[in-house]
Amino acid sequence: MNISGKFNVKLDPMEFYANGEHGINLGRMSIDKEFHGELDATSKGEMLSAMTSVEGSAGYVAIEQVIGNLSGKKGSFVLQHFGTMDKGKDSLILEVVPDSGSDELSGLVGKMEIKIEEEQHYYVFEYNFA
Fold first, then answer.
1. Which domains does the chain have, with CATH numbers?
2. Which of 60, 69, 79, 124 could form an SS bridge with 49, CB 3.0 to 4.6 Å?
3. How big is the CA angle at 110 (ends 107 and 8), to the nearest 5 degrees?
4. pLDDT given for residue 16 in this prediction
């Protein structure tokens, strides 16, 4: 299956354990999302980031639990993010955590892409059931 739609995201700074040194800025943010379309759901999670002293170079990891409906099936699943930017060129791996699907989403596997156009966030979700 391959679906797409819009989502809204709210990120808020959180207290964190580690402070960056030597030109590195470490951060921690809460994630709150609302997905629209074939994925009609909300998510909550946390993101850790590292900004370097080189403009456009950074990295982040995040975990979010998505709860709602996926193409009419109810349940939840977890998305894991691994993103980097190398002088403005970005790379993102965003996958469903194995065996994280619950209820009617049990066995869910998949990958998601995120696109941002004119400040609107879009997802493309390729998934199936193992």
1. 2-129 (2.40.350.10)
2. 60
3. 115
4. 87
